[in-house]
């Protein structure tokens, strides 16, 4: 943001020297100065340089304060102040909760599983390990091979919304239990990150657009006010007949849990006009299997494949966050060029081109659809000299 008060140190120095040069003869004649000053060196030059530096810092301070006066430029606590004026508040981070299964081979006898037992994942693509604590005591009864136990992530944030099968290690041994796993739809409530400035400003803008009446912006504002909602797609062209509106939401893990759908539905139904038939739902999931071959020019192939896989997973909810990559939104198609762009961005080496076996063509998605990654398999060949 460029503002009229922005000045460099050199500009301030030049203005100071121009002013001194213009008035010092007059000041000396009036007796305000004992003699003409040297601006090349000496105590006077040093004092002027200190003043110039202080003035430069003042301009910098004014720049930062003035920028924070505009919501579109504000950040952190300053943006919070603007949002407070329209009754919008930054959403806090939450911890994931869900259900895991403790299993055993020998089924004789009862096994007590106390609360406070810790299970965890293996290191993910970034080296992070996610740990979960059992929140209730459970008993694995005689003759039964498994039991479901509720758990909560130790850490706040969306990173703990791992996919099925990733929770597979027991950190605090439970005698009589051989293994643990999380299965499909294991999440009860998603973990979410603290709302960042970009998302908060979007809700600030929606708060003003909401004032226009019950438009799609109002429905989006209502839905996004609920903790855990990652994105919202409003389908308002009579999806189920005249007067109907579909509010399609995603959670931090992609497909929302029923708990999140119910929370958003409660807010929407309380605010929607009586003649609107509003339905809050999750997206129709479109599973994608990625199979591709990379032609490598240089670099370490295993490192390139690992980074390429991480970047591709970052395109989908549930993958580890990757800088510069935004997960697919509801209604967003997957062109092959997007997959190619993600792979060509690896830093571990140079990839010349990619060949995709699956998907073989661009993947189209309906207005209420969301692509989810089912599997990924990457291989490589060395690029031939041309």
Task: Kindly describe this structure.
This protein is of the alpha+beta class and about 375 residues long. About 30% of the residues lie in helices and about 25% in strands. It has four domains: about 60 residues, no CATH class; about 90 residues, no CATH class; about 90 residues, Alpha-Beta Plaits, CATH 3.30.70; about 100 residues, no CATH class. The protein has eight helices and 15 strands. The strands form four sheets. Strands 1, 3, 4, 6, 7, 8 and 9 form a seven-stranded antiparallel sheet that branches. β11, α6 and β12 form a beta-alpha-beta unit. α4 crosses α5. The chain is extended, with a radius of gyration of 30 Å.
The geometry reads as extended
Average of pLDDT: 91
Question: Total strand count, please?
Answer: 15
Order of helices and strands: HHHEEEEEEEEEHHEEHEEHHEE
What is the domain total for the residues? 4
What distance lies between the first and last C-alpha atoms, to the nearest angstrom?
46 Å
**Which residues form runs of ≥5 with pLDDT under 50?**
none
Counting DSSP H or I runs of 4 or more residues, the number of helices is 8
Percent helix, as a range, is 25-40%
The gyration radius over C-alpha positions equals 30 Å
Strand content: 25-35%
Secondary structural class: alpha+beta
Biggest sheet architecture: 7 strands, antiparallel
